[in-house]
Amino acid sequence: MAERSFVEEVKKLRLGAGETFRGEGILAVTKALLESGVAYVAGYQGAPISHLMDVLADAQDILAENGIRFENSASEATAAATLAASVNYPLRGAVTFKATVGTNVASDALANLASGGVTGGALIVVGEDYGEGSSIMQERSHAFAMKSQIWLLDPRPNLPSIVQAVKEGFELSEASKTPVMLQLRIRACHVHGEFTAADNKRSSFTIGEALDNPRRDTGRIVLPPASFVHEQEKVRERWPAAVQFIEERGLNEFFADGTDDIGLIVQGGNYNTALRVLERLGLADVYGNSRVPLYCMNVAYPVVDSEVLRFCRGKRAVLMVEEGQPNFVEQNVAAILRKAGVDTQLHGKDMLPVAGEYTAAETLKGVRAFLELYGRLQPLPAPVKPPKVIPLKPLAESVEARPPGFCTGCPERPIFTAMKLVERELGPHHVSADIGCHLFSILPPFNIGNTTMGYGLGSAGAAALNPNGGEHKRAISVMGDGGFWHNGLTSGIANSVFNRSDNLTIVVDNSYTSATGGQDILSSAAENKTRSTGHAIEQAVRGVGVKWVKTMRRTYDVKGMRDALREALTTKEKGPKVLVAQSECMLNKQRREKPLARKAAAEGRKVVRERFGVDSDTCTGDHSCIRLSGCPSLSIKPNPDPLRTDPVATVMDSCVGCGLCGEVSHAAVLCPSFYKAQITTNPSGWDKLCERVRSTVIGALQRRAARKSERYAF
Amino acid sequence: MNAKQPIKIAILAMGGEGGGVLADWIVDLGEANGYIAQTTSVPGVAQRTGATIYYVELFPAEQARADGGRPILALMPLPGDVDVVLCSELMEAGRAVQRGLVTPDRTTLVSSTHRVYAIAEKIAMGDGRADHNNLLAHAEGAARRFVRFDMAQVAEDNGSVISAVLFGAVAGTGVLPFSRAQFESTIERGGVGVKASLKAFGAGFAQANAPAETEQPQAAALRPAGTARDPQVRALLARIEKDFPVAAQPVLVEGARRLVDYQDPAYAQLYLDRLARIQQLPGGDLQLLTETARHLALWMSYEDTVRVAELKTRAGRFDRVRSEVRVQQDQLLAINEFMHPRLQEICDTLPAGLGRWLLRSGLPRRVVEHFTKEGRVVATSSLGGFLLLYTLAGMKGWRRASLRYQAENGRIEDWLERIVAASALNPQLATEVAQCQRLVKGYGDTHERGLRNYETLMDAVRRAGARLAPATLRELRDAALADEAGKKLQGALQRLALDAPLQQAA
């Protein structure tokens, strides 16, 4: 069950020709795939394209109506290899994953695919997780396109342009027998806009036909001598065919050409920002009518020499607006100009930042510098700062960072609480972290984790840290269930068996790939109508030969977790140790259970809700409990005691009663301030009777105590 | 060339606060009323408690038709180019100002004034909270108009969420070209929780034009003395009035009240005896007296097992829990306490001799240790649990004989001696010494760590003597509260050359 349901949005996928589609960019891509007549779609979730996968999962009846095969791929490599169906058959197919991490994983399959080339249109939709809020290393997909020779589309970030890019992408792929990559920046994936829909199309050639009449062509298989032929074919046939298609169909756009002898070359994805900047500088209007000529590269690769020359020839200078580094396009344009003997001055990363996101503010600075240099704008007068009447403390002192952290009631939190407690006993260990929600452990308050090498590579990241003899501490690796099934089972667990590792791997099994939005995987506990779930991680681990395996079925049992960790780290038994820590992702659990509880309460059935609280008169404001938890629901509030100043801990009403606060106060011997409240809605007659008896006795005793203390009250 | 421009709106919210819903409402509001609307955001990992900026642009469709163009709308805000900034929380308003999104020439800033504390603020061992007033002042200075109130409270009062209140507040400011009815029908079209949302919207609308609330209530106020019925208590109050300066009396009254409640009037007399000594010190420093009074009251009311049992079983506490966890009339409440009495706490509660014996004994000690290995959950709302704690609270009469009392009393006397000694050098230094009591807090390991830090500082005071500047001691105290491992404190001591034993003067 994915985090977000797209059941409503999916209805938009049925819109017909002439109707207006309103929605998110990534949903528009889905619609465009249907309008392009794809025969199959596959992918691996991850921001910002998780929604695409979730939409497809929710749209399986529509996919079925159109005869489309939909796969939740095991990894990006699986997804990319899926495109093999387009090598021999005129089947259009699309796969999707996040970049650049997904492209890294997929690169083997992508290289093989690109070498042999395709018959049916093959589209790779990559969601760029680059810039603000990104959770991955900052790299460009562009390099993958260049090294394997895959055409790279980078359309303007509006829905009509994105939809058109999908459709033209398939045509370009077929015209040049080359796979095409469509890159969408994160803001473009999530942009809300509208476009005019067309009818959905069924693939004229079906998967069934392909299977019943298999075709093979050894010339398409990467084996010598064919592979050497491919290398030549790429540059002699496919490249020229692509350039011809791009030029003829006008995939790249020229704006206001001829209005000035300077100009901007801008990547499609940066077009809106560049235009806004020109508008703010008084050189364009809101409709994109510019006084500065623009060459908009909706195809980022290949660069079309003739178009570059056409734009630059006769111009004094051009500014290349190219986000990310290295500046592949700028170098390419420089080479084109140099070889053609065109002396147009080329600017780019000399005026714009060499690295980092091209935000509106940075783009404004660079474009302004360019326009000032060529006298199109006067330099701004130095700003006069009005003297401050009341000197204020710098704002930075009052604004703290908000690093991402575990959600309220997250079952992964207690694992790290237990690790903290073990750390107190055994000292710090080397911790090889992985990708997933559990990576938040590297941030406060836990500060656990030394390296992270990639998705599912937590265990592999500690491979070298196995000493040849001697008494040493063991390295700890963390791996999520998502990473485990993606590749960790082989790259980490099987590897540690084969290489006789002595380390501990903790596999966090919360029943979903939670970090990417709660999609089901093999070990999901949930029943899934269209997928096979319920395959236990412990069985898989034993299957590859691990002897020391322990499964903790409730991560909230901090003491149990602590003891299991201690045992794994101190046992005399040699060989890899695997601790599977299970509890369902709280975000998904609440989404499922809250409405049920609400319904039950409304129907008059008995419902017990649990939540925690802190007694502010026994809390001394040390906040140890927060340092061992970091739960969003465990916060602080002003001390109600007039004699004290430090804020006291408090539990917000968003508490889901996961139980960690109580477990921690027991396991870490913290303080007696925590209480668990059980609130019973629609109590039974017996409950009410018991309550009456209890409250009569307790009330009487309380009144007695109150009388005593009231004697002295003042 | 740039006369026609979209309306630019930035929303700063934290994951799960409804920033996305608000952005969607604004888009729908625009689209339903003749505007071309665009919105985008970068949720990514930010949705897991991080902060997110949603950005919306609106452009009149009629205008675009007349001009024969299609507006190019931006996907991210340009600093200095934003009309409306909506923030679901005060620090996020600070962040908006910091990012340059709020400018005095044009930006209307609408923000809730409540705080959702950042992790750095929460994990501090003392008080790590950001300066509320500084945030307000910067926001006030940066915005053309700053509309602010506690929207979390308004949302709660109306059984809805902050996004609905923010939507109402922005409608109330009148900065967007839409009528109240147009705003309200947007909520109705949304179809989820419409009634509550409309109510919260209305409250936000009304508040937008109400005068801004004054600064947030600061720390809890000291309560003045009421009339006392008991003659012993009357004598206490009379003594405070007669023997101590007026300015110090409120703290002393609160301190005396705490100790009468904690033990009995005689215990409060001991409190005053101790303070009388401080007051009579040459110099007669008022701050030293009030600070000592405050910390002495806290120290003398140290939280032992008996005190905890007493506080947990009171009727007032039951009421407080009921209101905190929002129990409705027809619901039942059970309260479960998480306690972990260990050998040390049990010995502390016993008469001093017996407690010491048990601590040093062999088998009996191991037996007790065995049975206290696990923490216990005591249901105070059940008869058994209540009676257990009630009986424990009844042991108050024996407190003075307990091992813990002896230990704390010794420490208090020692602390007072140090204050007296320091005041001979410098009353300011003595005040700082008094404030070092703040380090000793919590239970179990936390208490031991605090005590250790306290002793380290007292040791530094003893060794440095008159060399120690009051500000240095304050710095050391802050360092002691900086991290659990005591790294900052060690560093500070080394820097000040107070870590190694001083060479004895010849």
UniProtKB/TrEMBL annotation, chain A:
Tell whether Transmembrane helix is among the UniProt keywords. no
Any one Gene Ontology molecular-function term assigned to this protein's record: thiamine pyrophosphate binding
- For the keyword Metal-binding, the answer is yes
Write out the GO biological process terms. small molecule metabolic process
TM helices/strands, residue ranges: none
Q: Which UniProt keywords apply?
A: Metal-binding, Pyruvate
> Which PROSITE patterns does the entry mention?
4FE4S_FER_2
This chain's protein is named: Indolepyruvate ferredoxin oxidoreductase subunit alpha
Q: Where is the 4Fe-4S ferredoxin-type domain?
A: 610-641
* Short name of any one Pfam family annotated for the protein: TPP_enzyme_C
UniProtKB/TrEMBL annotation, chain B:
Write out the entry's keywords from A to Z. Answer: Oxidoreductase, Pyruvate
Q: Per UniProt, what is one GO molecular function of this protein?
A: oxidoreductase activity, acting on the aldehyde or oxo group of donors
State the name under which the record lists this protein. Answer: Indolepyruvate oxidoreductase subunit beta family protein
Question: InterPro entries, per this entry?
Answer: DUF6537, Pyrv/ketoisovalerate_OxRed_cat, Pyrv_flavodox_OxRed_cen
The answer on whether this UniProt entry bears the keyword Cell inner membrane reads no
Chain ranges of the DUF6537 domain: 249-459
**Which residues does the UniProt record annotate as the domain Pyruvate/ketoisovalerate oxidoreductase catalytic?**
15-205
Q: NCBIfam families, per this entry?
A: PRK08312.1
Pfam families, per the entry: DUF6537, POR
Keyword Oxidoreductase set for record: yes
Report which superkingdom the organism of origin falls in.
Answer: Bacteria
Q: Which organism is it from?
A: Ramlibacter agri
